[in-house]
Structures are given as C-alpha cells and as structure tokens.
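Thread: Newbie trying to understand structure tokens

Hi all, I'm a second-year student working on a class project, and my supervisor (Dr. K.) asked me to get a predicted structure for one chain before our next meeting. I've only ever worked with sequences, so writing a 3D structure as a token string is new to me. If someone could post the tokens and maybe explain what I'm looking at, I'd be very grateful. Here's the chain:
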Amino acid sequence: MAPVIEIRTGLLPDDTETCARLWVRAIEARDGTVDAAPMARRVRSALAGPLIRLAVATAPRAGFALTVPSGSVRDEAFLHFLAVDPGGTGGGVGTALMTDAIDHASAAGFAAYGVARPHGIGDYAMQPYRLALASATPSSV
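---
Reply by user tm_fold:
Sure, no problem. This is what the structure looks like when written as tokens:
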C-alpha cells in the first residue's frame, strides 16, 4: 500500500527557515557540496515575495514546492523551488508536490522553456519551466 502523502498550504512562521534548510540539504545531496548561505537566502527571498502557492509536504517525508508569478510574463506561473528531504527515496512526495503545483496554478502542465543555463550560484545547469495561467491573480495561498 502506498504511503499517504500529507500536503498543507500557506506560509507558517517556521516555514521559511524549514524550507531554506531543506533546499540546502537537497542541493547538497544532489551535488555533494553547497554554498549554504546564498542558497538559503534565495529561498528566504522568494518566500518573502508574491506567491501563487506554497505547498509543504509533512509526511511521509518533508518537502516543499513554491510557485510564484513569472517575472517576465504576468499570466504565467514559475515553479521556483521543488525539494524533498533527501533522507530516503521514492514514496511519491516530489510527484505529489509537482501535481499540487500544477493543479493549483492551472489545469495545464508546466512546460520547459528556453535552454538549460548555468545556475547563478551552483556549478550545474538549470532548466526553467513555466505555465500559462488562465487568470493572473496571485495569492498568498
């Protein structure tokens, strides 16, 4: 039987630091090393700005997805962060967070746009994704 994945929304007082730590751990697990301070600052900064949706997975593993308004196109959502606690594998938490982001941004799916480009802080490529929205009314939920 598949584990029940618990996702809640909205920004709670501890979420900013929890998400920043989780992002740093996920990048470190992926890359082997991370410059933690700038990575954590990026998450804190994004959570302080306009949000379309913050979804936080609480079980069976921690994770989060942050969807924000696109800076260049008013009626598009940008999946800014998606991270799952690297202390395990599988379980579907990442898939559930992506599904939540898509379901709450629009009925369509995120699509890759442009080409992968070097990350501003890390030494790896970053592929942007975006999603055209039916209505450009960002909210804090």
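A couple of things are worth pointing out once you decode it. The CA atoms of residues 115 and 127 lie 6 Å apart. The beta strands are 6-9, 53-59, 63-69, 76-84, 111-112, 117-118, 125-126, 129-132. Feel free to ask follow-ups in this thread.
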